[in-house]
Amino acid sequence: MSELALPAPAKLNRLLHITGRRDDGYHELQTLFQFLDHGDALHFRPRKDGEIRLTPGLPGVADGDNLIVRAARLLQEETGCRLGADIRLTKRLPMGGGLGGGSSDAATTLLGLDRLWQLGLPLARLAQLGLRLGADVPVFVHGHAAWAEGVGERLTPVALDTPWFLVVHPGIEVATAAVFGAAQLTRNTPPITMARALQGGAPSWHNDCEPTVRSLYPQVAEALDWLGRRAPAMLTGTGACIFARLDAEATARRLLADLPGRYTAFIARGQNLSPLHAALGRWT
């Protein structure tokens, strides 16, 4: 295989509960992950010299800190592979947006280079490597909508509704560490079973991070208020992006047309199978 082009889809947290804080500082979560048919894209070409070259770089992020480069180098180290890659990134997802862009890019890199370098690692092994890069990487590696617990790494595949979503970015980055470090963050939501979460459905789902993000980031609060007056609105992850679940594409497009100029937004459809895995299937 001389080259490979793959998507790195966005995710939404359709529900996010924080049930506790561990001794190591990480938080225990319960969440529902779902993919969108919108995201970044990566193009891979193999190199024989072992070099990993990414273009373009991300503003303010050194290549050595970029999750794409780190994923590629980790795969080399763990397998002894002497091949390298030229990687071209088309970045569509905002940084600090709560859409999992960096984690998705890392997962696409792991799966894409595993295929390009003909390593043949099982998904479980790739997910283990992904967890070393970030708690959200495994769900992108496994590629199915999931109920997640722990720090987000214990995954159970689920089938969620697949509505249209309007996803709004208020134009700022949210620092995840600031949200999880805030004294006022809810950390004692009683755990529930997956069955109970799914039985309640979208009308009862909420994000425990939302009140804290509202207080720390007024721009997010304003965007939530604007969207919430038009449709039920929720924060994804720690933000900054917010979303509304809509039954029809036409409704989403009407809301998009009314979007204030200070925001950016996109429309996407919920997906239970990751577009990454759908694309990999076409390359088989």
Short description:
By secondary structure, the chain is α+β, with helices and mostly antiparallel strands.
**Alpha plus pi helix count:** 10
**Mean pLDDT reading:** 96
The assembly state of the depicted protein chains is: single chain
Helix/strand order: EEEHEHHHEEEHHHHEEHEH
Structural class: alpha+beta
Q: Label the CATH architecture.
A: 2-Layer Sandwich
* CATH class call: Alpha Beta
Beta-strand share of residues: 25-35%
Q: Tell me the span between the first and last alpha carbons.
A: 11 Å
Overall number of strands: 10
Count of folded domains: 1
Largest sheet: 10 strands, mixed
The CATH topology corresponds to Ribosomal Protein S5, domain 2
Shape: globular
Notes on the structure:
A hairpin with a 5-residue loop joins strand 1 and strand 2. This protein is 33% helix and 29% strand. It is globular. The chain has helices at residues 67-79, 101-116, 123-133, 137-142, 176-180, 194-200, 210-216, 218-228, 249-257, 275-282, and strands at residues 4-21, 27-47, 52-55, 84-90, 146-150, 154-157, 164-169, 233-235, 242-246, 264-271. The protein is built from 10 helices and 10 strands. Strands 1, 2, 3, 4, 5, 6, 7, 8, 9 and 10 form a 10-stranded mixed sheet that branches. It starts with a strand and ends with a helix. By secondary structure, it is an alpha+beta fold. Helix 2 (101-116) packs across helix 3 (123-133) and helix 7 crosses helix 8 (218-228). The mean pLDDT is 96. It has a single domain (1-284), classed as Ribosomal Protein S5, domain 2 (2-Layer Sandwich), CATH 3.30.230.10.
